[in-house]
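Crash report, auto-generated. Payload:
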Amino acid sequence: MAGAQKRSKLATSMAHDLLTIPELLSRNAVEFGNAPANREKEFGIWQSWTWSEVKRETEDLALGFLALGVEEGDHIAVIGRNRPHLYWSMLAAQMIGAIPVPLYQDAVAFEMAYALDHCGARYVVAGDQEQVDKVLELKESLPSLRHIAYLDPRGMRKYDHSKIADLREVQKRGRAESEKFGPELARRRDRIKSDTTCVMLYTSGTTGRPKGVVLSHGNILEASRSSSEFDSLRQTDSVLAYLPMAWVGDFIFSIGQAYWCGFCVNCPESADTMMTDLKEIGPTYFFAPPRIFESILTSVMIRMEDASAIKRRMFKFFMDHAAEYGPALLSGERLSARNRLLYWLGDLCVYGPLRNVLGFTNIRVGYTAGEAIGPEIFDFYRSLGINLKQLYGQTEASVFITQQPDGEVYSETVGVPSPGVELRIDDKGEVFFRSPGTFEKYYKNPESTAAAKDAEGWVATGDAGYIESETGHLRIIDRAKDVGKTASGSLFAPKYVENKLKFFPNILEAVVFGNGRPFCTAVVNIDLAAVGNWAERNNIAFASYQDLAQNPQVYDMIHANVASVNESLSEDEKLAGCAIKRFVILHKELDADDGELTRTRKVRRGAIEEKYSEIVDAFYGGRDKVYLETEVAYEDGRKGSIAATLNIRDVKSTEALANAA
Amino acid sequence: MSDKANSEAKPKNGSGEILMELKGISLRFGGVLAISDVSFDIKEGEIRAIIGPNGAGKSSMLNVISGFYHPQEGEIWFRGERRPSMRPHRVAAQGIARTFQNIALFKRMTTLDNIMTGRMTLMKSSFAAQALWWGPAEREETEHREKAERIIDFLGIQAIRKIPVGTLPYGLQKRVELGRALAAEPKLLLLDEPMAGMNVEEKEDMSRFILDVNDEFGTTIALIEHDMGVVMDISDRIVVMDYGKKIGDGRPAEIRNNQHVIDAYLGVAH
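Recovered output after restart:
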């Protein structure tokens, strides 16, 4: 294919010539000028922009920023959902030597305050009124803030526009004054080098304050290049940009790799329409955290429960067949003619239509990362013929540390080192890496930089893991600092146990305690969708989440789940001491707004242990009920509280033994 | 939410021209006097609330404005002309749209189709041309669809565009109904208890939409609402009714201190 040849020629030639993202944009505008670069659904129609249009739009924005007075080294915060204009704003900032700082749009004002103040953001590009309001709320404490630009003008008409402007007006002004600012733009562009800062991303802060990770153009380009080659990504690929722009993954997929390969980035119409948009776009390259794959699977299963008997039986028959032979077929193994024929039939009747409904028809490469994924969930997608793989990464590595190559995919490992990445595991079991994508530094934080990155460039991941001898793949057990010992001296790896619990569809989230304690205990969050549906089918009435959570039958169900986790743990020599003796079902969902999860929805263990200390005391104090009053934050920032009496359930160790026998 | 909206985004409306004037309206159902000699006006661009205890005649008043009831006495002046007694669809064609207390959507039609029906009064092609979907009719539908899509975008209901409204939760149905009323591009929008049965968050959303409609499209709004907090926050002027009579009329602050109103709501020792 001519295109492919052109690509490979390009890939070799540019590796040395092209050093920055703006340079890639210029190249794409020439090479793929008429190919779509961005699409966004608006007013019910997919609007698209070609690479040459994107270049024009971005340059106008850059000129507009110059007209506003943006200087080199200024930080421009970008806050909003994934939209082409916001991506262009980041590019425009880079073009004029400013540093884009994407922030989580669902963060409440005081969380945003830290990042905005820490980077000394002079300009903010906000997606809509909600984001502008948050920034205005903080205005007093942000002396360096000069100007805010917003994208969606709704509700903005009556604001004082002396320090606030419509982003499109900024762009228009740039276009109008292109003669005046054009030469300055060219000068600034020439000064961007491979080691110029490309973007600054704040870590989600599982522990302590978020840190500003500084990534250079070189970091991003190298990481994007080698990972694109690893999975043979090409210009004709397409992705759906729906994950937070503040997350390093989105920056790599929607900017790094997209600009390197020249593929199209599609933005959904709104957060709620993601599934519909996914189906309409049918991306070829797709990333989602395990949570999303999990909830898609749950909704498929719930819909199947309500289907007619014939459909249910057909679904079961072919899904059983797929579970047995699908993954093997995907890994390229040979099957008997009968099994191949049955798989083909299944593809016709079930797998194909299902992939289509979910928007996974065209997927060539699918990734999941961030948390462990349940083996059943992982296998479900692979058995459908979707090439879902796992990767292990960090903001500090420009994402990629390890990836699973095609044909070597296992649910419990995270793959082999990505191209260019070196791995090392120290004697305490902590994983270290060194790569061209390794971050420059933490902004204004030399101590943390020194603590994380040693003189030879090795970076501590903070995760404990080991290389599996038979596959050579990395396997992650837990956060290194969370791995501890119970009072009896056996190994305690909470995340490992929590993941096992979370693999049950009824359990949304779990937090396990036990470090330095006589035995392990768990706080469980039920999955309202799954348990609610189960309750409905079994004629169990409930008034609220809280009510359902304390239902004795729900307790019985979770009890059975915990017992089977204990059973599987008892088979593991190292982790047998992690068996859960007591558990409680929490009356509210853990929420980032209440400081219980990070914005990337990881459990904040310390915060939870502190907040629910009464539960922990009750666990180890031998009580069987605990009364709680918990503060909750509403989405608008107001606080309220809910009170409940929670039941504590004992899981007898004999039960686990009996089951095991 | 509403305090914020009030403090930063809302200089007082209602200093404009009079859009509608009601003079000495009385409405009887047989021997029952539902409205007795009520007069007030609605100015261009304001949010005008009608409040009162149950059975005060608020809904009847709204029905009089929308042409559903014809008062036995009194005059209605709309945009400087006295309005003769006319059927509701003629009133709608004049630029008055409404929502209903008990949602009156076409349950089996999608959100988009429901909103498109709101544009019926604005469509010019004949029935035959629309059925054949030919020439001007096609262009016209495209235009109307664009308007409908802008409303969908405005109300943030893209995700339910193609879903039959009957399956939607109550709060969203209310929003679709507002969308349908907006689709008619009304001069005067009548809202009959837009927040009835909503939880706090839904009420805040709806208040925000009402303020934004008023702000972005400059639509004059007359509404009936029970939630006093909401009424005080979003309206420019308030009419208070009790037993079919007007007992107060003024800005929220004045109404709050009006002894008749306090008596009507809290009861008086007789």
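Post-recovery validation: The two ends of chain A are 60 Å apart (CA to CA).
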